[in-house]
Amino acid sequence: MAMDEIYEILEELRPEFDFRKSENFVDDGFLDSFDIVSIISMVEEKYGINIDGLDILPENFETAAAIAALIKKSGGNI
To answer: Distance between CA atoms of 58 and 64, rounded to whole angstroms?
Structure first.
């Protein structure tokens, strides 16, 4: 399932947080700008995509659904 793949990436990056219980990863302090750069690198490699620099906005990383939408928008098959 696509959401499980995203949660796996998030949990690999920051295992100390329970992303499944957060409604906003950025506001809850689970992700900072360095984490977002890491997520971009991980999803680009995993899905064979390039995320446009204009799409690197905090709101695209607030939830697993937002990350999935960004992957789809960037041409990823998720």
So the answer is: 12
